Amino acid sequence: MIKVNFSNSKIEKEIKEFDKEKIKKVDEMIRNKTGQGSDFLGWLDWPVNYDENEYNKMKEVAKKLRQEIEVLLVIGIGGSYLGARAADEMIRGLYPNDKVELIYIGNTMSSTYIDQVVNYVKDKEFGIVNVSKSGTTTEPGISFRVFEKLLVETKSKEIAKKRIVAVTDKAKGALKELATAEGYETFTIPDDIGGRFSVFTPVGVFPLLVAGIDTDALFAGSKQAYEDLKDINNQAYQYAVARYILNTKKGFKAETLVSYELQMQMFSEWWKQLFGESEGKDGKGLFPTSCVFSTDLHSLGQFIQEGTKNILFETIIDVKHPTKDINVPENKENLDGLNYLTKNSFHKINQTALQGVIDAHANDGQVPNIVLEFETMDAKMFGYAIYWFMLAVAMSGYLLGINPFNQPGVEIYKNNMFKLLKKPGY
Ligand code: PA5
Q1: Structure confidence by residue, pLDDT tens digits, 2-48
Q2: Binning pLDDT at 50, 70 and 90, where does residue 296 land?
């Protein structure tokens, strides 16, 4: 479901000649769980090992909730929300024609934003899924207080009890204790799966079920990737190798993930977290950034074409089959001179732009381009792509010699903030 094209990467030869033994060794570290952080490799077999009972329970609870609400507030930050949002937007699009809207909170402490959401939902039928593995993260914690209170005040304690779901650790953390005390339905985040690897657990699956997304197809996609990528010559590993060569042998410092579909923007945000948090440590790693073309061709495109060289390369997601295609309408007067385009669909024009841009950036601009062909933007494709990138980052992180599964740097700001806020114990 993903086809990689390295013909404009400028390192095709180096990728082919890369030490196969090294790939084999790292693959063994991943599969045999012998590398750093290996107690966080629970996602590796999850497509065939997931808890079916819990999945069926989630389906039941989500079905009931879906009947009752218009808005689901998804509370979480980083890995506890980006996957669900990436899936929601990629699969349903930006203006879904569905009964239930997902709104994301807990990822900001902006009082202005939170107040806007309060005003938006206060007269609506809403529910809450509160996602936090540690159960102690400040941003989602204080946001939950606001909306739990709002639900109790605008409805009742009884209704709040039916409409609030917690996704957290099976035993520990403040959220687990709170959910148990209040009698909220709770689903579990497995111990051995970290936030940015948790899309296929209740973290991603529960909100997506409430949104009416076909999560069976999502699992089918992840399972297909799990099978397809067993061979060590797989393309996810080749992509990891290409990034490694561009970074450590050619000196590139950043990678921008480009897509030509606005509804892939949050997918890129998820990808940025996956690669940024997994690799950015010990003074190493590529800085992950993203662009959406055409819009960014009219801003960052200038920099990519003619700005500082040898810092940035592009990885382009080329979606072959759009969810919907439309034609450029005929106009008798042709005052804008655009009738020459009426034989093309928008998608065909978009694809032509993609070809022209690759030529401009890779050949004139000398910017390496890697192309990832995605078949579609549906649930199966999403599941496939998520697993594909998770396996790629495991290979990529271990090639760099770092632990891809921790995020020690994230704690530093938290400690500073807690000291300043006079949190007990800091
Ligand atoms: O990938 C990660 O581990 C992080 O982004 C976490 O998901 C994020 O910090 C939220 O943590 P928690 O789920 O404990 O609230």
Answers
A1: 999 999 999 999 999 999 999 999 999 999 999 999 999 999 999 99
A2: very high
Helical spans, DSSP H, in 165-263:
174-182, 202-210, 215-228, 235-244
Would you state the pLDDT for residue 137? 95
Q: Is 255 a catalytic residue?
A: no
Q: Which of 276, 269, 277, 235 is nearest to 253 (CA)?
A: 276
185 is catalytic: no
Q: Whose structure tokens read 């030529």? A: 359
Evaluate: CB of 143 within 6 angstroms of ligand 1. no
Domains for the chain: give ranges and CATH numbers. 2-34+220-400 (3.40.50.10490), 43-213 (3.40.50.10490)
Ligand 1 pocket, residue 137 CB under 6 Å:
yes
Catalytic residue among 22, 64, 281, 414: 414
* Identified catalytic residue from 185, 269, 277, 314: 277
Report whether residue 404 contacts ligand 1, using a CB cutoff of 6 Å: no
CA angle 199, 200, 202 (to 5 degrees): 85
Give first-to-last CA distance, the chain, whole Å: 49
Distance of CA 360 to the CA centre of its chain: 29
pTM for the structure as a whole: 0.97
